[in-house]
């Protein structure tokens, strides 16, 4: 059940939902209203043109959904009283959203820990590898500061389409939001976005035909940064259903949570928030992202 309190008059019931929640189409909201899924002050209504008044309580009762299956092959790489460092499988979302609630890393943490550790950073659903979580407020605060100060190192392995000429290159396209019909907004490469930096090192050309294995280090952590940056540089991730050359969407029916690309968080380098020990934690990459592949 989802509730909203009306703060001003002048809109109809349909206008309210279509404008406030554009992730669903106007026709979707019309169908929901006419099916009786929405109530005003606990009374079901079916008139989409009903005018709204300040103070009214809207309730939308959504039918339960069946979550897609995911892998819970989660590997513990390090744990003490302050930190938990895991290796996340591809296909497992970190946080609830986009049709996922319990089939997430957060859902798994809630089942495994009385007080769930908190992710310090995020990995995309299709990205596998190292993720760092804080078990105490001290750890959360210090590691969040380290991220902002760029003393928290994140290294990735990525399989990209194309063969770069340079052995090393840096991508600095800004990343920001643009309008997107599936979600309302989507992060892409845009001149009006925020600063983002990705350092790329070629590990192996022609890993498979017309594909290159890269190591990518990101001092910044914008949403979908590696996918956007490599695509903006002309080397989109192999199999990426969303981001293409230019760092923009190439498929208006796709969303960031769609899998298919090969990206692995290979290692993190951090300073322990309490002991101040320098730590490097690695997660073995899948075969196609390992330089020993042949």
Quaternary form: single chain
In total, the number of strands is: 18
Q: How far apart lie the N and C ends?
A: 53 Å
Helix content range: 10-25%
Radius of gyration: 22 Å
Low-confidence stretches: none
Computed structural class: alpha+beta
Strand content: 25-35%
- Mean pLDDT, as a whole number? 93
Shape: globular
Number of helices: 5
Tell me the series of helices and strands, N- to C-terminal. Answer: EHHEEEEEHEEHEEEEEEHEEEE
List keywords for this structure.
294 residues; alpha+beta; ten-stranded mixed β-sheet; four-stranded antiparallel β-sheet; 5 helices; globular
Would you mind describing this structure in some detail?
The chain has 294 residues and is of the alpha+beta class. 16% of the residues lie in helices and 31% in strands. The chain contains 5 helices and 18 strands. Strands 5, 6, 7, 8, 9, 10, 13, 14, 17 and 18 form a 10-stranded mixed sheet that branches. The chain has a 4-stranded antiparallel sheet with strand order 1-4-2-3, with no helix packed on it. The chain is globular. It starts with a strand and ends in a 12-residue tail after the last strand. The model has no long low-confidence stretch (mean pLDDT 93).
């Amino acid at each position: 059940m989802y509730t909203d309190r009306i703060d001003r008059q002048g809109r109809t019931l349909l206008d309210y939902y279509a404008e406030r929640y554009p992730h669903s189409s106007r026709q979707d909201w019309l169908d929901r209203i006419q099916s009786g899924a929405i109530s005003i002050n606990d009374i079901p209504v079916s008139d989409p043109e009903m005018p709204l008044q300040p103070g009214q309580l809207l309730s939308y009762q959504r039918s339960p959904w069946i979550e897609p299956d995911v892998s819970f092959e989660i590997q513990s790489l390090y744990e003490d009283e302050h930190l938990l460092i895991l290796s996340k499988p591809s296909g497992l979302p970190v946080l609830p959203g986009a049709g996922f609630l319990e089939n997430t890393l957060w859902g798994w943490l809630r089942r495994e820990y009385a007080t769930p550790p908190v992710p310090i950073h995020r990995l995309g659903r299709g990205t596998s590898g190292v993720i760092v979580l804080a078990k105490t407020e001290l750890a959360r605060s210090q590691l969040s500061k380290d991220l902002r100060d760029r003393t928290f190192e994140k290294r990735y392995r990525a399989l990209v389409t194309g063969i770069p000429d340079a052995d090393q290159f840096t991508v600095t396209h800004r990343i920001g939001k643009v309008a997107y019909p599936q979600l309302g907004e989507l992060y892409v490469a845009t001149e009006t976005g925020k600063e983002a930096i990705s350092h790329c090192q070629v590990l192996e050309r022609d890993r498979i035909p017309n594909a290159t294995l890269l190591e990518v280090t990101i001092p910044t952590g914008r949403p979908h940064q590696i996918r956007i940056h490599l695509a903006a540089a002309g080397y989109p991730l192999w199999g990426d259903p969303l981001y293409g050359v230019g760092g923009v969407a190439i498929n208006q029916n796709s969303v960031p949570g769609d899998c298919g690309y090969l990206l692995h968080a290979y290692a993190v380098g951090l300073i322990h928030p309490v002991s101040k020990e320098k730590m490097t934690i690695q997660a073995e990459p899948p075969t196609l992202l390992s330089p020993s592949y042949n």
